[in-house]
Write a structure and sequence with these properties.
Chain A: InterPro entries: ABC/ECF_trnsptr_transmembrane, Cobalt_transport_CbiQ, ECF_CbiQ. The complex is a heterodimer of chains A (244) and B (235). Chain A has 244 residues and is mainly alpha-helical. Chain A has 2 domains: 5-130 and 221-243, no CATH class; 138-206. Chain A has helices at residues 5-12, 20-36, 39-55, 62-68, 70-84, 98-120, 125-134, 139-168, 175-206, 224-243; strands at 85-88, 91-94. Chain A has a two-stranded antiparallel ribbon with strand order 1-2. The longest helix of chain A has 32 residues, at 175-206. Chain A is flat, with a radius of gyration of 23 Å. Chain B has 10 helices and 2 strands; from the N terminus they run ααββαααααααα. Chain B has one domain (10-219): Arp2/3 complex 21 kDa subunit ARPC3. Chain B has helices at residues 10-37, 41-55, 73-80, 82-99, 108-132, 137-163, 170-183, 187-207, 209-214, 223-234; strands at 60-61, 67-68. Classes of the chains: A mainly alpha (244), B mainly alpha (235).
Amino acid sequence: MTGLAVDDAAWASAWRTRSPVDKLVLCAGLVVCALVLPVWPGGVLVALAAVLLALGPARVPARTFGRAVRWPLAFVAVGAVTAVVSVDGGGLGWAPDAAVRAGELVGHSVAGGAAVLLLATTTPMSDLLPAMRRLRVPGAVVEVASVTYRLLFVLLESLHTIREAQTARMGHSSLRRSYRSSGVLAAAVLTRSWDRARRMQEGLAGRGMETGLRVLPEARPSSPAFLAATATGLAALVVLGVLA
Amino acid sequence: MHIAEGFLPAPHAIGWTVAAAPFVVHGARAVVKEVREHPESTLLLGAAGAFTFVLSAIKLPSVTGSSSHPTGTGAGAVLFRPPVMALLGTVVLLFQALLLAHGGLTTLGANAFAFAVVGPWAGYGAYRLARGLGAGLLPGVFVALALADLATYVTTSLQLALAFPDAASGLAGAAAKFLGVFALTQVPLAVAEGLLGVLLFRVLTVNARPELERLGVLRPATAEETAEETAEEVR
């Protein structure tokens, strides 16, 4: 357990060993379809495809998938309602065809969100970051992002531990104390992150790090069958979405 | 709250990505240069990114009783400067999209523009202005964090207003609606983030003074000041 449910799901997914490039192609295709195809039937089909692939072959727990969409859904609901309420001369009312517009917004967002979540719950960040090198993102940037990914779990654990200790000592018993404790908590996490970075740096310098953190990437060959199925599936989605 | 995946129409998603790109590329150049000159900075910059992510996971005790989360980019802008935050903020947004399902990939550009560009620059601008007018470190930090938080959500509201103009009152009506829902509700939280910043920096000036001096946030103590402090301690 690392503390982030989506990350745990990605490491445990049945698609973990698939080539990250294959999964990127599939999910990017679904994301684009969700954005540009009309919601009915294109968007609905994209959402269905993403959910079925995640819960079926990729074996992502339904609970993780369901819990992860709660926050974006809250934003989508508030945003969609605000978008279709009409303000005119101080009075509030529904815009013409409000239900259709709200439905379209929710449809695009749910389909796109499901497609991104399919990638997130099947591919750990540490597989995606090396793939970014191929997109010509500078090596130094990918390295900084990799260190961020590896450190954030350590810091999240510190955060929870310190907060638990503060709570046990009545640190969050009143608003005033809660503020004081949160300030100390943030400062402790920041100084710990510096300390961690300094110690890792010293350790790596002792092992002769000069130019960068070079690691051997795991070889995950791309599957022609998976890519062919992706192309066929996406083409079918586009045809159904445009023609229907 | 970031704009969710698929919420912005394609032309807006592309437009905001193009708008955010120069800032993020500029930040990436700054990071590449820094890492080339000082390879050990990779770890410190990674730590700064992880801190920004984790700071946004701290629950903020809000005045109104409900809890919410700070944006964390104001503190980063004061500590590490806005160009670096443009890149680190975008990396954090990517992680939030893929690890927490907050935000999205097609809306990454729009969110980066609000969260990693406008927020840090507004906060840093307010900080420099306050310090220039003779304010101390802590008042400067308060305005920086509060303004970075608020500017982020004002930008998000305006982005949404541009994408969804009101059927009757057009852009102005839409801006009023979205600002009312997403920015006005954020004012108490912006104040709360400012207060958190003051408490954070108060602890840091005691516990991490050398690091703050190295980052240029605090002036290194002169020999006279050190002598005075020592004299006080002796007394």
